[in-house]
Amino acid sequence: MVALLPGKDLSTDSETKNVKVDSETSLDALLEVAETGDPAALFELGNRHAYGKGHPVNIRNALDLWYGAAQQGHAEAIFSIGLCYFLGGGVAKDIGQAMHLWRQAAANGSAESMFMLGIAYRNGEEMPQDYPQACKWLLLALSCDHPKAMEALHEMKDNITPEDRAEGIRLMQEWTRNPDSRLG
Prior knowledge:
single chain, mainly alpha, two-stranded antiparallel ribbon, 9 helices, elongated, disordered N terminus
């Protein structure tokens, strides 16, 4: 099991050596910045390996690069590794490990991780459905302006009891008030 520690959330719009790192950065400039260990550059280079932008698709290389960024607390790199575990892409499928990584990424501010946790709990992805947890994570994703969170909450409205909704709201409030409990 991967043991990533949560750390400072590092933006994907990093600037190292006066090079802005994003999806439009030239491959040469990105490689130069990635060699310095810049987490945003490692994440972006991992994305290019994962999605075949400027490189042949190679999920193992993508994972290696994402691990380098994740070890520095890069939330979206942690999310991406979790997605690989969720789907079984480049690693053995392990829903528990995906959820663990997504909780770490969520603690670092990843709205996408919050959303995926909500969907997994709502759908009961290889675990029992948990509507209070689904509500908690989808409300947190909504608070981070995730574009699909409201729709996912709406899809759940006919299945969630008022008690489960209230518990989800309580859990969300507890999570936002108590940063020390976010990984538990």
